[in-house]
Structures are given as C-alpha cells and as structure tokens.
Structure of feruloyl esterase:
Amino acid sequence: MTPLNPVLLTLTLLLFSALALALSNLSPGCANPQPPDSPTPGTPSTHQTIDVPSAGGLRTYLLSLPLNPSHAPSPLILAFHGKGQTASQFETQTQLTDPEFRLRGSIVAFPQGVHGQWLGDPTSPPRSERDDIAFARALLKQLMQEWCVDLTRVYLVGFSNGGGLTHLLACDPEVSAQVAAAAIVSGAFYKDRSLKGDGPLFGTCNKGEAPLPILEMHGGADPVIHYDGKSTPDGETYPLTEWLGDWRERNGCAGAQSELKRDIHDGSVQKTEWWCGIGKQGAKDVVVHYYIRGFGHGWPSTKGQDDDGQRYGPVGWNGTSDIVGFLAGKWLGGGEVMEGTRDEL
C-alpha cells in the first residue's frame, strides 16, 4: 500500500476544514428554492408580510434584493426607521439600497413599525402587548430560511426610535448572537421610568459574551434626543457619555483599552474609537462615536430632507457611507472583510 504523502494529506484536511467552515456560514435559504412569487433581485424594493402573533399579528417590511449573478451568500441588513416614519421613507432617507452606498451584495430589509413606532418609545405599548423584539427575531429567521444569507455578516441599523430598538436587539441574547455589528443615528435611549410596562428595557442588557461592535452618530445640538440626556416632553433619556461607557463595558473595555479621538469631515465631526483588550484577545474599534458639531436630530447627508428644520439642514458628508464602511469591516467572530464595500449594479 502506497503511504500517504503528508503534505498532500495536510492540504486535503485544510481544504475540507475550510469547506466545512464555509458551509456552516450559509443560511438554510442557500439550499432552498426561491419562494413562490418572490421579488426579482436587482429590482425596486417590494412590500412583504410576516405573521408574528406576539408582535401584533401580520407585520410588514420592505425587501431589497441585490443583483447577485454569482449567487454568493449575501450580507443582511435590518434597518429600523424613526418614530413617525414609514419603511419607504427610511429607505429614501438612508440610501442604503442606492448603488452609490449599498454594501456589496447585501439584502436589505426595512421593517415597518405599527403606527410608525417601536418598542422603547414612551408612547409605545409595553413589550407584553406588542413585542417588536419577537418581530425582529421572526424576521431574521424568515429571511435566513428564504434567502442565501452569509450568517457571519448580519447587521442592524436604526434611527432615533429605531435606533433605540437596535440597541434593545443588540442586548437581546438571541439576536446579539447572530449580529456582527450595529449602527445607530440619533439613538433614542429612554430611562425605563419613562416607558410603559413593568419590565426593564434599556436598564438591562443580556447580550452574549463576545464583543458586538457598535457605532453611534449624534448631533451635539439635537433638540429631540438631547446629547446630555436631559428630559424631553416624552421622557428622560440616557446621556450619550453614559450610554457609550456602558457599551464599552459590555464589549469588554472595562480593563485594557485605548481611545482615539480625531476630527473628520472638515472638522464638523469628532470621531472617537475605542479599541478594547490586548493582543489576540483584543477587539478593534468595538465602540465608535460621531459627535456631530451643531447638528440636530436627523440622518446626516448632503441631500435636503423633510426634517431639515430639526436636523439643521444638510451636511457636507453622507452618514450612510461611513456606516457602510464600518459594517463592511465586521463579521461574526471578528476579523476584517477585505473586499470592496460598495455594490456594483
């Protein structure tokens, strides 16, 4: 019997290990046929439904599929609108599906809140009556069953009240175990005493042990969700410095850490990055914050928007570009994604 070549044997084992790892990162939808009457990849977003009894029954969302000729597994983004918005308005506001900004090959879902609001707003029903966390869990499961998703590249994005829900999802043990990173703009993080219901929401966090990189952008002159957390007509919110400190601790920054502050976008933004831990156990930029000087409550972009009165007009840069760049470098389990970040349609 001819002895096995040790080099060939090693290469074969490495190949099978890499193949097994790649297959483990694929959602069930990679092996399933496309759902009947499903939207066509590369076409405008379509309205979809999902039945979640604990979240109010039939819920809706907008779905945008990439033009993906290679049929490679796609990154998945769930993007949650602000209070009073629709999913369609948020798609237009963020431009997350525009070729100029889109994360390459990404599936983007824009869930719709009931009456334009989410759990975590003072006027929203308590979780026991309408559970938006259950909605997000069910939607993730459905999207992964129906479409070919890269399970290491699932992301959350949220604005204002939707940013508050993004925080709650990042603190949920089931969702946080599936998410590689999250990005929030003008996040509304209310003290629990301002909310309906007996159970804690923002006052507790049950995320997994692994760091969950998170980016938050906030206007220093926000008239709706004040930077220093002072009470608004709706209730008291967390000061941003306290909220950022809590996330540094959750992501393992209580011990060794480094802080990098620098001005970007012609000095209009102070960007702060925290790198936590030492050596191989360390995590790069697990908490990132944009303090936007003189900016109000809104999504930073160069385009005029309906809320220019409270966001204090357009800015000279696009927040979506920075957010996509942040998300593109993160995958579940750590490391860097080296490919280009923009879609090519």
